[in-house]
Amino acid sequence: MTALRKTTIALTSDAAPFAIRAERSSDVVAREALLDACFGDNRLNRTCQRLRDERAPAEGLALSATARGRLVGTVRLWHVSVGGKPALMLGPLAVEASSRKFGAGAALMDHALAAAKARGHRAVILLGDAPYYIRFGFSGAKTGELLLPGPFERDRLLGLELSEGALDGAWGMITATGAPELKSRTVRARKALQPVPHAA
Question: What is the CATH classification number for the domain harbouring 115?
Answer without folding.
Answer: 3.40.630.30
